[in-house]
């Protein structure tokens, strides 16, 4: 129930449409049931060949009206008798036909209006859910995604949201309309015979128990099906990203078998899901007809017994009303099954929506509009999970003065990238703190901290968009001339100018139409345009050929001029002129100093330098 209320809370923004929908459905049910409830008394008098009966009705005069089945029927019988006396049975028949047409017209008019008013709710709720889900994906910390499969998150964003749209939102009309129809039918049935209605209310919950049990099993199966969908998307995403390696290692057969196994499991689960869904309609109809037969037998005895306790016309009217319960009950059961299926998706979506955002602004954060003095890592320690032993970083302390370049070197897994990632708060320290101009970055606005920084990584992160939009990414109101100037500084203007549409050329998925060096220079151009006072360069040249490395390194040198830089490098030749080199090993600082000082110490840095010189 918690998950369904979580979905329905989105309706708050569309309450006007909800009120109009409910009102329309009430009117539709009233017109529908009123025409049915009153039809049989009409026909009983209309086709009556007993003139004495008509005379007795007229002689008694118009009965006093009060809210009961007998009073309503007596008044209608009197009005019909008057019409037959003053005109004819044909005239009364015409009146009945017109009455039925008018009521059915208004029934269908208000039914359409009910669907008309629920359309903005159905689609608006799904739109708001997509927006909230995407917004949450943007604000969740990077550590969240280290435990999640990308394909599974994509499945929740697409398949699960679509499932809610089809299973829950499409069922809202039935959920709102059918209970109203059932309620009005029950009220009229109570007015006709409270004894039969009490019997029906005893029998109907028994059928609900059977339906509910199947619905719970459907929800469990649907949850498994959603997880399998996520697994399929994960395999597909990994396959598309790794096709080059799959082909190179002749691994097509292995990958295909893995996909086919998951696909077969998914298919088997879907068979179970559809069988349970398909069972809902015949089961509900069978149970409904069974209850109807019981009512027919008991009511028949009340009419045909030695001492009848019910009028035959009333009983026929009662049966007509009860028959109207079967269709909405059947529709409501179908909606219930669909909602159970959709709730499995809602649970998966809520795992993202309810995930804790650990990296966020505190209340009343400090403003950090500029960088004036220094960055300080103060007794910083970090572990990805507190429950797991071992520190990725252990008691790190150092300062970076404004305008200086600090290089981080060491073997893979020593903690260099993690240490740099904590500066823009991709991760927060488990212990200690990082300060900019004496202000802890946890106490400053997150957007202010990141606005001070530009990042160039080993893998160039570009988007399937134009050159212009990639360079100007995240910056508003930028002229093309400013983009061109940034590209010139990054040694990118020449190759961009040779593209078919220049700066308006689309570069493909992740910049697939560009070479590695071109992608990297575009990333540098993006950082140049942002013009940040602090730079983080993570292995920015390690994956390039010699010529591209020279062009990129030249662009980086221009970018680093008069800026504070944190450089992570494996190639020591690129950081020999750094103001300070910090050597990392197993999450700790083991050496620090300039290139010449560290070479003279004949320690770990000297060994790394000798190995690269030999290579």
Short description:
Helix content is 64%, strand content 9%.
Write the layout of secondary structure elements.
Layout: H1 2-8, H2 15-46, H3 51-60, H4 69-86, H5 89-139, H6 142-145, H7 150-168, H8 172-192, H9 194-241, H10 243-248, H11 252-304, H12 312-353, E1 374-382, E2 393-401, E3 405-410, H13 416-421, E4 431-436, E5 439-440, H14 446-451, E6 453-456, H15 467-471, H16 480-489, H17 493-497, H18 516-530, E7 534-538, H19 546-560, E8 564-568, E9 580-585, E10 588-593, H20 595-601, H21 604-614
Parallel strand pairs: 3-8, 3-9, 6-7, 7-8
Antiparallel strand pairs: 1-2, 1-4, 4-5, 9-10
Which descriptors apply to this entry?
2 domains; ABC transporter transmembrane region fold; 21 helices; elongated; 615 residues; 10 strands; four-stranded antiparallel β-sheet; six-stranded mixed β-sheet; 64% helix; Rossmann fold; alpha/beta
Distance, first to last CA? 65 Å
CATH class of the largest domain: Mainly Alpha
Biggest sheet details = 6 strands, mixed
Gyration radius over CA? 37 Å
Which spans have pLDDT < 50 for at least 5 consecutive residues? none
Mass-distribution shape: elongated
What is the CATH third-level topology name of the largest domain?
ABC transporter transmembrane region fold
Strand proportion: 5-15%
- Strand arrangement within the widest β-sheet reads 6-7-8-3-9-10
* Secondary structure tally, helices: 21
Which structural class do the helices and strands define? alpha/beta
Please, what is the average pLDDT? Answer: 80
CATH architecture of the largest domain: Up-down Bundle
Instruction: Estimate nothing, just give the exact number of structural domains.
Output: 2
Q: Helix coverage percent of residues?
A: 55-70%
